[in-house]
Write a structure and sequence with these properties.
alpha/beta, 6-stranded mixed beta sheet, 12 strands, 29% helix, binds zinc ion
Length: 244
């Protein structure tokens, strides 16, 4: 089975549609949260995902638009975007977001899916090997997929040395999934933050047991024009050009 891995779409329909066009054949979609927030087309992104055999977990932005967490936790631009998004959402899509779980039972027996971290699924950023090492104690499966940081990375667990190491996720080169325990972040579809403005995603092949990370350029200016029309905060519009 081929599973398309998406994270942090953030209402960026142009980026999402581009990924769906280039991803090739896939049987299922796993989405690691933050479907909405920041971007100009939250409803359309939700409805696009609903067309697929989908497993999706909740992210902090998905909760923010439901008032499930305090908007004071957000910086002013993110807060403005969350309030705007909340006003746009249809009742049905709001209910769809409300039903998203914080973590899902192991998928394909080997994977735990969360937005932030296995320890704190909504909020914690797994950015360093030290944080990754602690989090290897908070899931039982060999593999865990996370989003939230918008930075593609792979953390390997070295249990005998009581540590974890971080490695860049190679583009277009399949990683073999063997007995090793890994935390993998596929990067962000709709708002990359690793200095590369191209949309990020991954493909999991459960027969070959490989995980492959991809980047694809999309019409950033088209998303930016929609954000301007919606009067979303200018820094959120500009950052898409830089992937930051
Ligand atoms: Zn996010």
């Amino acid at each position: 089975m081929r599973i398309l891995i998406l994270s942090d779409i953030h209402g960026n329909l142009v980026a999402l549609e581009t990924v769906l066009q280039v991803a090739g054949r896939f049987d299922r979609v796993w989405c690691l949260g933050d479907v909405v927030g920041y971007g100009p087309e939250p409803n359309a992104c939700i409805e696009k995902l609903q067309a697929f055999d989908l497993v999706c977990v909740a992210g902090n932005h998905d909760w923010a638009v439901l008032d499930k967490l305090d908007l004071e936790e957000f910086n002013p631009d993110a807060r403005r975007a969350a309030v705007w998004t909340r006003d746009q959402l249809t009742p049905a899509n709001r209910e769809w977001l409300r039903a998203l779980p914080e973590r899902v039972p192991p998928q394909a027996e080997r994977f735990t899916l969360v937005h932030g971290s296995p320890r704190y699924p909504i909020w914690e950023y797994v950015l360093t090997p030290a944080v990754a090492r602690i989090n290897f104690d908070y899931f039982d499966t060999p593999l865990c997929l996370t989003g939230h940081t918008h930075v593609p990375v792979i953390f390997r667990h070295l249990p005998r040395e009581h540590r974890a190491v971080a490695e860049p996720l190679p583009e277009g080169a399949p990683i073999s999934l063997n007995a090793e325990r890994l935390i993998i972040n596929p990067g962000s579809v709709g708002q990359p933050r690793d200095g590369d403005p191209r949309a990020a995603y991954a493909m999991l092949d459960t027969d070959a047991q490989t995980f492959t990370h991809y980047r694809v350029g999309y019409a950033v200016a088209a998303t930016q024009a929609k954000m301007e029309q919606a009067a979303l905060p200018p820094p959120l519009i500009t950052r898409l050009s830089y992937g930051w």
